[in-house]
Each structure stands twice: as structure tokens, then as C-alpha cells.
Design brief:
The protein is of the alpha/beta class and about 725 residues long. The chain folds into two domains: about 400 residues, no CATH class; about 140 residues, Transcription Regulator spoIIAA, CATH 3.30.750. Helix content is about 60%, strand content about 5%. The protein is built from 28 helices and eleven strands. Strands 5, 6, 7, 8, 9, 10 and 11 form a seven-stranded mixed β-sheet that branches. Strands 1-2 form a two-stranded antiparallel ribbon. A two-stranded antiparallel sheet has the order 3-4. A hairpin with a 4-residue loop joins β5 and β6. α5 packs antiparallel against α16 and α8 crosses α9. It is elongated and about 125 Å long. The termini are close together. About 40% of the residues are buried. This is STAS domain-containing protein. InterPro entries: S04_transporter_CS, SLC26A/SulP_dom, SLC26A/SulP_fam, STAS_dom, STAS_dom_sf. One of its GO terms (molecular function) is secondary active sulfate transmembrane transporter activity.
């Protein structure tokens, strides 16, 4: 073997030069002489023992991982961080209070349960969460998904008897039986969401969020915003309508609202419209002057205070304007959820768990990237699971992080989750002391708060033009996610969107881009000959590239594209060979027949004379023709059927191959061999090579010397083999 030399030096002081001189390698040589696998000295039993061995270091690492607060609280820089966290916490709490009241309407439970959901989970996340900037609590999309399940299980016209409310702590005198039943459903659904998220976190299933691609999530949340706005129209207009769930619920809700539009409560509509315009104006001002404002203008709390004051001064309830109503002071005693309601809620629990985690981890990673720290997806699942599970015993509904509150918490200088803790303490103060103040708060003001906070989601429609220009498949995912979620509901819409996203992945692997590669002179580089002028093919060699793995779903297409792109179809060549052989045989038969007729004609017209040397030569000529027939036929078979003598399969893009794909490749290699075209494989990575060995792809006929580490190795071997005379050794 010649020594291998490599050098890199400056050429003209501007470009590095690479020179490598080595033999042409194939996998047979690499696997037997050049590469030797490391022998593992650790047995499976030892690995298992090491995995579960306990030590003080591991115990400490586990404790710090499970309670991230222990990693930063002991070294918390009070002087640098405390004031920023206090200002951020107060600003976030001012926003969290009205949103908690408002999003409870989306969850179809009394407003006070929104306050509970804005306190307990935030308190728990401070200890278990890894993000420093997200604001945990109620969120419009998750609240709406909870409300959809609640309304489906407990419709407004359902008759509830005392025996139906099994939990005595929920059968409060302050709640009607139907409201108590709704709270039960929301609570048990939240418990199931928490269990799912916690178990997923323990099983290290943080990767599940990758199946919710950004176009899918943005299309889904935009559809959720449409559902939220539709659900708030009745509060904005002050009309009484039924609440629908399931497929086409958005259509039915719009139809119901417009059928009663003549019954619009004018005071409610005017107050709601005024609040909407005011909040939108405040939002625009905060956005435009955010660099000049020390803290954002708290538009939501201003609306809550002013509209509550107006309701106190002008008894709006007498004008049939719906108000929040009784808000009990203090916290409720913990209670075990009613798990008899859980069976019908399993699909909803999985949907809420995945959507909630997806929203949280995407926002957490955004802030972590901006501020230079990391978040642990699995710990985030555990944190959200504990927040939902433990809080559900205190009568909360499912939570996740809120985009609008998180932006407030981050933009006002929040450094750690101390800011979130202070925001939750503000909510606790309201629940314990001054909750009764907000009893006359008009629901139309809460509807205005909800609608204006969705402006950011509606801006996601701006995604469509860029996606049209950059990726039509991602645009299709966005549109399918949006349309399916609007028409089928958020639960079935999410499933349909995920299924469609997976189908697009299958489509991409089933319909990969394939090409014929050519070499760029004096570089050893190979590119598509149809794309680059500098790329040219070697005579008699076709290099086929397909940017996909080979498995059951695309193996047939891979083979068909190979035959189409190379222009070499073994069956067509064999058919042409057979037709040529038959034509040659027919021509020889006709020639022999004409010679025989001529000989008989001579015998009948000429005298019988001794056989002359001339006649003998003629007969010898006939004999020679007869003997030459098989020789000509053999020559016809020996003629090359195609100008292509070698095909190289470039597998640099192949990540895996299954048994169906391996059989298809093995079969096509044999087909090409039958027409004297050699097929070799180049650029096969070690993982795929191990899979081929496992699938028993190699045999005496197909050995590893047909596999090369690079396309250039394969080209040189094919050129060398084709230049040798017949019968020469095939060894390099």
C-alpha cells in the first residue's frame, strides 16, 4: 500500500491547498486492514450497574436537576437583581390579575378560579422551572381547550341534581350545581394533564415538541384566536347564546350570535367597544415607545378599575349588563378530583398537555437564547406536570406560559422567577383581601381584554406571504393547521395538523430530488450535471444521487428514478438483445435458404461432372457460413448493450435502509449485472453499512468490495476495471 500523504498550505497567501495521495479504498479493505472496532471491556451487567449506582455526587446532581431553584437562589445577587425583579413582578402581576379573571370565562368556570390558577402554579414553577423569564399562569389557547371539554361534558342545558356533585368541597353554596359540575370537569382534566406531562418528563419525552413544527403551532394558535374571539362576541354584544363544542362549533357559534344580534345590549356593546379601542391604543403606545417607557402602561388593570368604578356608579346590572358576580374571599380547602369523569377526557388531556408544553418550551428557548442560558425540556415537562397536578387539588385549571405576560416580565427587567413569585403574591392579596371589589366588573370589559391580547396572534397571518416564497410545504402545514382547527375544533384540528405534518415528511422522503452527478475538473468534487455547467460526466459511468433514505415507502420509486435518470433499463436492454438475436437468426435462415435454392437449380440444369476444386470451394464456403452462424450470434451477445458500463449509487444522503430497501437494491444490482453493467455504492456511512450487514445484504456475489468510502474512490475503480482487457484480474 502506498503511503498516505496530506498537506495543507497557503497558495499565494490566499487559499489553502489540500493534497492527498492514497490508494483507492473499498469497504473490504477498510474493514479488514485499515479500521478495527474498539473492543468494549464493559459488560451489559456492569453498564446497568453503573447506570443505577448511587453516590453523593449523583444524588446532588439529581436534587439540583429536580429543584433548579437550588442552583441559582443561594448565589442570588440581591443588589443587582432584586429591584429589577420587584418592578417586573409588580408589572406582571398587574397584567396577570385581569387576565386570570378573563381567561376563566374561556375555561367555562367562574372567574375566581382564574385567580386560583394564577397563584398556585406560578408559586410551584418558581421551584421546579428552568426558565427565568416566562410567566406561568392562564393562557387563552389552553383555557379555550379546557372550556371546550367542559362544555362538551356539561352543556348549559344539562340538568344537574345534587347527587351529581360528588365533591363536597366543590358543592359550595356559592356555586350553582351546573357550575360546580363544570369546575369538577376542569379540575380532573387538569389533574390528568399534569400526570401526562410529569410522566413524559420522567421518560425523557421532551422531544415530543419537535413534532409540533413552528408553522403548525402558529397556524393552530391563530385558529385558536379565531375561536376565542367568536366565544367572546356574546359577552361583547351582551346577548345570551348557547356554547358549542366539537366540529363546526365556530360556525354554529357565529350563526347563533348573528341570529340574536337584534337583541344586542347597547350599554354592554358601547362599554366593550370603548374598552377595546382604549386597550388597543395602549398596546400601540407601549409598542411604539417601549424604549422610552420604564414599564409598559398597564392598560388591562386601568380598564378593570375604571369599568368596575363605572359599574359601581351606574348599576349596570340593572341595564342587563352581565357582571363577574360573587367572588369569595380566601382560598378553598384542597380536595381530591372526581376521577369518575376522567374516561371521556383522555384525548383532551393529551392535547392540552402537548400544546401547553409546546407553547412553554418554545417561549422558554427564545428567552434562553436571548439571555445566554439553557433550559431543560424534560425538566420543563416535569415542572409543568407538577404545577398542573398539585394545583388541581386546589381547584385550578390547566396552565402554561403566556406570551403577553412573559414579554412584560422580560421587558421590565425581570432576571429570575422571583418576579413571577411576586406576581403570584399580588394575585393572592386580591384573593384574600380585596376580591370582592371586582364583583361588579362587567364581563364585556373582560371580553375586551381577551380580544385585544389576541392581536399578536392575528398578526401571524403575516406568515403566509414569506412561506409562499420560501416553502410551500410549510405554508400547506400552516393553512391545514389553521383551517382544520377552525372547522374541526382545537382537539381534532391539532390531530389533523400533526397527521398532515407527518404526511409531508413521508411525502418528502417518497419524492426526493434525484440527479446525475458529474465531476468538476481537478477537484474531486461531484455536482448535478443539469445544474452546473462545470460538472461533466465520465464516459461510460453514471453517478446517481438521491437525497433520501431507502425504505419500504420509497424503494420502488428509488429504483424507477435510477433507471430513468441513468437511461439504462435492464429489461429494455434484454428485450432489445433478444430482438436483435431473433433478427440475426432470421437473417441467417433466409441466407441459408437462398444458397440452397441456388445449389438445387445448378444440379438440375448442368451436366453431372466430377466435383471440381471450384465447386468444393463453394461448398466449403457454404459450410463455413453454417459454422459462422453461431459465431456471429455469439458476437452479437458479446457486443455491449449500453454505452454505460458502471453505475455508482451515491449514498452520502442515506441515513437508514430497511429490509425492503435492501432487497430492492440487491435485485437492481443483479438486473444490471445481467446486462454487463456494474453497480457500486459510494459514500455509505458506517451506520447504514452495519444495517446492511445485519440485513445480510452482502454475499459471495455482492461483497463489500463494491462499497467505497467516497464517490471519487468508486469512479477511479470503475475506470480502472473498464480499461482492463477481458479476463484480466479485477483486483486493484
Amino acid at each position: 500500500m502506498e503511503p498516505e500523504e496530506a498537506s495543507a498550505q497557503e497558495d499565494g497567501g490566499s487559499r489553502l491547498m489540500l493534497r492527498v495521495e492514497r490508494p483507492v479504498y473499498d469497504e473490504e479493505f477498510l474493514g479488514t486492514q485499515l479500521l478495527h472496532r474498539k473492543q468494549s471491556s464493559t459488560s451489559f451487567r456492569q453498564k446497568l450497574s453503573d447506570k443505577f449506582r448511587c453516590s453523593s455526587e449523583r444524588a446532588k446532581a439529581a436534587a439540583l436537576s429536580f429543584l433548579p431553584i437550588l442552583t441559582w437562589l443561594p448565589s442570588y445577587p440581591v443588589k443587582q437583581y432584586l429591584m429589577s425583579d420587584v418592578i417586573s413582578g409588580l408589572s406582571t402581576g398587574v397584567v396577570q390579575l385581569p387576565q386570570g379573571l378573563a381567561y376563566a370565562l374561556l375555561a367555562a368556570v367562574p372567574p375566581v378560579y382564574g385567580l386560583y390558577s394564577s397563584f398556585y402554579p406560578v408559586l410551584l414553577y418558581t421551584f421546579f422551572g428552568t426558565s427565568r423569564h416566562v410567566s406561568i399562569g392562564t393562557f387563552a389557547v389552553v383555557s379555550l381547550m379546557i372550556g371546550g371539554a367542559v362544555v362538551r361534558e356539561v352543556p348549559d342545558n344539562m340538568v344537574i341534581g345534587p347527587t351529581n356533585v360528588t365533591n363536597s368541597s366543590l358543592a359550595d353554596k356559592d356555586l350553582s350545581p351546573i357550575d360546580a359540575r363544570k369546575v369538577q370537569v376542569a379540575v380532573v382534566l387538569t389533574t390528568m394533564v399534569g400526570i401526562i406531562q410529569f410522566v413524559f418528563g420522567l421518560l425523557r419525552f421532551g422531544f415530543v415538541a419537535i413534532y409540533l413544527t413552528e408553522p403548525l403551532v402558529r397556524g393552530f394558535t391563530t385558529a385558536a384566536a379565531v375561536h376565542v374571539v367568536i366565544s367572546q362576541l356574546k359577552y361583547l354584544l351582551g346577548v345570551k347564546t348557547a356554547r358549542f363544542s366539537g366540529p363546526l362549533s365556530a360556525v354554529y357559534s357565529v350563526k347563533e350570535v348573528f341570529s340574536k344580534i337584534k337583541q344586542t345590549n347597547i350599554p354592554s356593546f358601547l362599554l366593550g367597544l370603548t374598552c377595546t379601542v382604549f386597550l388597543y391604543g395602549i398596546k400601540v403606545l407601549n409598542e411604539r415607545f417601549k424604549k422610552n417607557l420604564p414599564v409598559p402602561i398597564p392598560g388591562e388593570i386601568i380598564v378593570v378599575i375604571v369599568s368596575t368604578g363605572v359599574s359601581y356608579g351606574i348599576p349596570l346590572e340593572k341595564h342587563n349588563v352581565s357582571i363577574v358576580g360573587y367572588i369569595p374571599s380566601g382560598l378553598r380547602a384542597p380536595a381530591v378530583p372526581d376521577f369518575s369523569l376522567a374516561l371521556n377526557l383522555i384525548p383532551d388531556a393529551f392535547a392540552v398537555a402537548i400544546v401547553g408544553f409546546s407553547m412553554s418550551i418554545s417561549l422558554s428557548k427564545t428567552f434562553a437564547l436571548k439571555h445566554g442560558y439553557s433550559v431543560d425540556g424534560n425538566q420543563e415537562l416535569i415542572a409543568l406536570g407538577l404545577c398542573n397536578f398539585l394545583s388541581s387539588f386546589f381547584h385550578t385549571f390547566a396552565i402554561t406560559c403566556s406570551m403577553s405576560r412573559s414579554l412584560v416580565q422580560e421587558s421590565t427587567g425581570g432576571k429570575t422567577q422571583i418576579a413571577g413569585l411576586l406576581a403570584s403574591l399580588m394575585v393572592l392579596l386580591v384573593v384574600l383581601v380585596i376580591g370582592f371589589v371586582f364583583q361588579p366588573l362587567p364581563q364585556t370589559a373582560l371580553a375586551a381584554i381577551i380580544i385585544v391580547n389576541l392581536v399578536g396572534m392575528f398578526k401571524q397571518f403575516r406568515d403566509i406571504p414569506p412561506l409562499w416564497r420560501t416553502s410551500k410545504i410549510e405554508l400547506a402545514i400552516w393553512l391545514v393547521s389553521f383551517v382544520a382547527s377552525v372547522l374541526l375544533g382545537l382537539d381534532y384540528g391539532l390531530l389533523a395538523a400533526i397527521a398532515f405534518a407527518i404526511i409531508t415528511v413521508i411525502y418528502r422522503t417518497q419524492s426526493p430530488k434525484s440527479s446525475i452527478l458529474g465531476h468538476v475538473t481537478d477537484t474531486g468534487l461531484y455536482y448535478d450535471v443539469n445544474t452546473y455547467e462545470e460538472a461533466s460526466e465520465y464516459e461510460g459511468i453514471k453517478i446517481f444521487h438521491s437525497n433520501s433514505s431507502i425504505y419500504f415507502a420509497n424503494s420502488d420509486r428509488y429504483v424507477n428514478k435510477l433507471k430513468e435518470k441513468t437511461g439504462v433499463n435492464p429489461k429494455e436492454l434484454q428485450a432489445a438483445q433478444e430482438a436483435k438475436r431473433k433478427r440475426k437468426k432470421k437473417d441467417n435462415k433466409e441466407q441459408n435458404s437462398s444458397i440452397k435454392i441456388c445449389a438445387e437449380h445448378k444440379d438440375a440444369t448442368e451436366e453431372v461432372v466430377p466435383q471440381s476444386q471450384e465447386m468444393q470451394e463453394v461448398r466449403n464456403g457454404e459450410l463455413e457460413d453454417k459454422h459462422s452462424e453461431p459465431t456471429s450470434e455469439a458476437a452479437a451477445f458479446l457486443e455491449p448493450l449500453s454505452s454505460v458500463h458502471s453505475i455508482i449509487l451515491d449514498w452520502t444522503a442515506v441515513n437508514f435502509i430497511d429490509s425492503v430497501g435492501a432487497k430492492a437494491i440487491k435485485q437492481v444490482i443483479k438486473e444490471y449485472a445481467s446486462v454487463d453493467v456494474r453497480v457500486v455504492i459510494a459514500g455509505c456511512n458506517r451506520t447504514v453499512l452495519d444495517e446492511l450487514n445485519t440485513l445480510q445484504f452482502f454475499s459471495e456475489e455482492l461483497s463489500t468490495n463494491m462499497v467505497f468510502p467516497s464517490v471519487h474512490d468508486a469512479v477511479l475503480r470503475c475506470q480502472c476495471s473498464s480499461s482492463r482487457p477481458p479476463g484480466a484480474s479485477s483486483e486493484a
